[in-house]
Amino acid sequence: MNIEGKTILITGGASGIGLEAAKQFLAMGAKVIVTGRNQAKLDTAKKKYPALIAIQSDIANKEDGDSLLKKIKELGGIDILYNNAAVLVPPLNLGVANDKHAEGAAYEMEVNYLGVIRLNNLFLDMLQSRKEAAIINTTSILSRVPSLIEATYASSKTALAFYTVSLREHLNIIGSNVKIFELIPPLVATEMTVDRNDKKISVEAMVKGLIVGLQKDRYIIRVGDSRLLHLIQRFFPKIAYELVNPKKNHQLLKN
Fold this sequence. Notes:
Elements: E1 7-10, H1 16-27, E2 31-36, H2 39-48, E3 53-56, H3 62-74, E4 80-83, H4 100-128, E5 133-138, H5 151-173, E6 178-184, H6 203-215, E7 220-222, H7 225-235, H8 237-244, H9 250-254
Parallel strand pairs: 1-2, 1-4, 2-3, 4-5, 5-6, 6-7
Helix pairs in contact: 1-6, 3-4, 4-5, 7-8
């Protein structure tokens, strides 16, 4: 897939992976639109990269989605929808009765899964009208191996992974030109993982891996440790589980 000359919409693009992706896409000659809930972060991103188009929008809000579609049409449309926005609720022990389990899971599912479906549905007709178009859904290394301390987050990403496979096949069946990519990141050094002491990949390396995958039309893009874990999971699933859930994390569930 060619990036130069494309118009790309990145959700959650005001910081972290999304902002780094915007930076690298701009450098490749793309037009980039970023969205996010925090106007202050959007203003900062715009100041740092003046070529960005920044629009405040919450993917969990249906009205925001409708408004975003209208604004994007006024800007001439997009070629690539990069579903990057995600939330992670602080880990909880599922073995202890707590109403926050359901509340946190609902929030994660609303943003990480249902919000993506709504946005894809809103923009699908537009994307299908373009000569070359794509949707990038960001799942997680945890969509393949469950995490004890991030159980509901992992579940939301697993749901998205299954949906992504189905969406790709549905579009293939009807002869659509829209390419469906699944980005499977490892643990990335962002605000979301600042409290984790595990090995992390930089946002720069993460986005470079994404771009290589796009350019080579790899519909499943594994970056960094997600490639190794994929192989381990295939042949040694117990070891993969232990790598994702080391003994040191058990204490977090007891606190």
